[in-house]
Amino acid sequence: MAVLHAWRTARVTPLGELHTPPRMTAVLLRLTVQVVLVASLWHGLYANTGTTAGLDRDQAVTYAVLAVLASRLRELDQFAGRDTVLQHMHFGTIIYWYLRPLPPQRYYALRALGEQLYGLAWALGGYAVCLAAGVVEPPRSAAVAGVFALSMLLGQWVLYYVLLVLDQLCFWTVRNNAAMLILIFAQNLLSGVYAPLWFFPDWFVTVSAFLPFQATLSVPLSLYIGRIPLSDAAGQLALQAVWVVLLALFTRLLWRRAALRVMSQGG
């Protein structure tokens, strides 16, 4: 029974996509356009140069395209289904998270798991097409592929907690739409979604090293393209694991504090 409840919870947001074919078509079109534009951009940037910031053209294109595909892992349209924490706080429906037998933190985790599994199907499909078309390079060895997969798993775990912290901020703010957009932009910028971090100034890279954002995407993709050698992989994986533990403890504390701010009026 517990497994059945978990399955039903995990498929909440993906079902909203699967039951709306036009949204799936829009996702496919947007993803295709993004991949084509990003690949064209980096091919153009490397038209008159061989290596920049330690990357050659194929490495840069592979990194950029994989970053686009990885962004699909947590880009489901929760807003259309009124399934975001921000909307639940605005309409007062967040109280139902605390009235159900399933604890809110478990519901949130299961729902996020379903979203990531659904997004993984999109990312793997896009990766297979790009790999067959020669848009991205394959892993240089089986060891690189294994380390990349483990690092990506840890990175998505870190990303889950980062996004959870952003959602938990809604419990302490009244209207924070702009703040959420700024924080999401910062997450994408500091994690290397828009461009590899090596293209930024040294002070920017140094500051980002003390934040969890680059552990979400920059580290896994750097391992994939060989920017981080396998000899340094153990240290990077350990750092990712440390961020997972620290953020897990921090968000657990925030869940407890958030529960004290939720009130049920009229019974």
Q: Please tell me what the overall shape is.
A: globular
Distance between the termini: 29 Å
List low-pLDDT spans. Answer: none
Secondary-structure-derived class: mainly alpha
Textual characterization of the structure:
By secondary structure, this protein is an all-alpha fold. Helix content is 67%, strand content 1%. A two-stranded antiparallel sheet has the order 1-2. Helix 1 crosses helix 7, helix 3 runs antiparallel to helix 4 and helix 4 runs antiparallel to helix 11. The two termini are 29 Å apart.
Short description:
Helices cover 67% and strands 1% of the residues. The chain is mostly helical and 267 residues long. Strand 1 (51-52) and strand 2 form a beta hairpin.
List the helices and strands and how they pair.
Layout (H helix, E strand, L loop, with lengths): L1 H9 L1 H7 L2 H25 L5 E2 L2 E2 H14 L14 H7 L3 H5 L4 H29 L9 H27 L8 H14 L11 H8 L8 H8 L7 H27 L8
Antiparallel strand pairs: 1-2
Helix pairs in contact: 1-7, 3-4, 4-7, 4-11, 8-9, 8-11, 8-12
List keywords for this structure.
267 residues; two-stranded antiparallel ribbon; single chain; 2 strands; 1% strand
